[in-house]
Design brief:
This protein is mainly alpha-helical and 132 residues long. It contains 4 helices and 2 strands; from the N terminus they run αααββα.
């Protein structure tokens, strides 16, 4: 003959205990399954209590705490000394090199490069001239 008895009686949880369990489950990195196992309850009960907290049925929802933050402007940097623009050399009318690249930028600057110019170097020069 086998006698099956009911497990422990249904527990009655106070609102303070429910708050404690829910707050533990809401901590960053906390797993609801681990919190439920630690307290000996089902995960569904934690979710129910959390919903009740949000709806105000268990008292006020705790206000999140934020760290104080002060924003200060970066220290003022000294203005760089203006660099005199190099004199523009006009292109020679009769000496046109078929490999020569000439780029006239909207800012009025003209960049001339030979056929053997490094592409990365030319990109850096163009970017620097455009930024002026």
């Amino acid at each position: 003959m086998e006698v099956v008895t009911r497990g422990e009686r249904r527990r009655i949880w106070s609102d303070a205990q429910k708050h404690l369990v829910v707050l533990e489950a809401m901590q960053p990195g906390a797993l609801v399954t681990e919190v439920a196992r630690r307290w000996g309850i089902g995960t569904g009960l934690i979710y129910t209590w959390r919903r009740q907290m949000r709806q105000g049925e268990l008292g006020a929802m705790p206000v999140p705490a934020f760290a104080e933050l002060t924003v200060t402007p970066p220290p003022a940097m000294a203005e760089p000394e203006p660099v005199a623009a190099p004199p523009e050399v006009p292109a020679k009318a009769g000496a046109h090199d078929p490999g020569r690249i000439e780029v006239a930028l909207p800012c009025g600057a003209t960049v001339r490069a030979g056929r053997d110019v490094n592409e990365a170097a030319l990109r850096r020069v163009l970017a620097a001239v455009r930024a002026r």
